[in-house]
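Try it yourself: sequence plus FE2/S2 (inorganic) cluster, in.
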Amino acid sequence: MRTVTFLPSYRKIDVARGSTILEAAQRAGLNINVVCGGQGKCGKCVVYVQSGKTEFDRQKYSRFFSEDELTKGACLACATIVQGDLQVLVPESTLIQEQKILIAGRDTEIEFHPSVRKYYVELQPPTLTDPSPDLTRLLWGIQKSGGPVAEKIYVPLEVMREIPTLLRIVTGKLPGQLLSSRAATALLISRRMTPQNIFMVLR
Ligand code: FES
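Structure, out:
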């Protein structure tokens, strides 16, 4: 039997000569990261042999280590055979960390500046005494609903062209009814407007 001492915990375990360091570590209750199942393919089970005799094919697994690491005794636990009593350092990065559930956090104030806003708009139909254009009515409606002032709303030409039709599609009547339609949203958004443009979302 050979005694393997794992550092920094100083856990000791007796194993038969010819066992791997991985087997010894597992028997000692260490949770070594073995992504490839101990096949020498993932390079996750790195340990450092501090003293004692082992058998490890440095050439074969050199892709996992720098020269400096090899000098310090780095090897793969799954591919290193125990030949004598050993002292093996197990870095924290080689161990599977216990999963922790985040149950508390800091409250962060987030100011929202969405590029798309929704305004509830009700418009009066044009009359002989008030024949203002649809666009003007709509912009004033948005302003009245808490949106930007009408003069500051930029309406792209392609949207402007759509507004009379849109209002009539939406309501099926002349503007002045409650505008309520997802189609309006879809129509405006489908125009590929940029965030600088005003998105008039009507419902
Ligand atoms: S467990 Fe994957 S290389 Fe050792």
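One thing you can check immediately is this: DSSP finds five helices and seven strands in the chain.
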